What does this fold into?
Amino acid sequence: MQELKPNVYSIRAIDWDRRLFDELIPLPEGTTYNAYLVEGSEKIALLDTVDPTKMDILLGSLTASGIDRIDYVVSHHAEQDHSGSIPVILARYPNAKVVTNARCKSMLIDLLHLDEERFLTVQDGQTLSLGNKTLQFFETPWVHWPETMVTYLAQDKILFSCDFFGSHLAASGLYVEDEPMAFESAKRYYAEIMMPFRSIIKKNLEKVGKLQIEMIAPSHGPIHDRPGYIMDAYRDWVSDNVKNEVVLAYVSMHESTKKMVEHFSKALIQRGIVVRQFNLVVTDLGRLAIALVDAATIVLGSPTVLTGAHPKAAYAAFVANALRPKARFASIVGSFGWGGKMVEQLAGLLTNLKVEVLPPVIAKGQPKDEDFLALDMLADQILAKHREIGIA
Ligand code: FEO
It folds into this structure.
């Protein structure tokens, strides 16, 4: 256990080796599961637990610190990387109550088969006295799942935020040491799990922004002891502002689509547009997600396979559609041999996006001069659209 403030402790399980979360999200920097212990003059609260794979670290820390009583286990989020060790904590501390909102309670009962009598249900804004320290709970839905909430410890001006403001970043330091790296990891995490709920995250941000916060203690990654920078970053990410950037995600089989993408990429760069180019065969899904946070335009590149889109392009379209980025424009480039419905398939996978679709450029076989000319015209059109909205 490491002390953040008098009688407020971090209990961290660092997972240096984990490389995938939810069997989907790449974790290039590993992760941490952060629980916190708040010792008031009368009651002791544990805030979240850790992933069950690291349960021994949590139990060992509590034992080593001589914690023989826990009165409350605050559960901010039912996902098992934070809740999964609650059953063993309840078994070890038989008088402990799980403190959470009604929705999270219901999900914890479903996921962990907890006994209903072990719960203390709290409302939005409700406080819980630990004696000389008071916890206040705020519902912040969709900072991953619909039940998520945060806790504010007014005496120490700490916000315990769970996934909100978190990052999958394994590091030995308790606090953010490398701000650009922490920024990148936090942006990746926002893009992967919170971006689809941008408008709700914005409201949550306004809600917690009214609190006096000196420290944000998330349940993944380092603690923000300069919370201003991460709150400002979130404000930018959830805003309607897009940047003069094109995400160009493609796959190519026999170089036709690749030649088009390379030409198109150069044409955009020549027009002063930032290009984020991703070969979907090798790209890290998280890097693509990060790029989708800011880009004004998304362009997918695909050959035609078995009469439709290449499955890797379809996967990228499916992911982009699920993440609901704030892009304003989209298009498709690619190639075909004898026909097919590649464009219709990809466009049909992007229905969640509120974008203006710009005319696609599709070559038959190897691209010819007229195809390259059409790509130049698409680049012109993107520049014109970016100028129209005042970003170029
Ligand atoms: Fe870290 Fe949504 O759990």
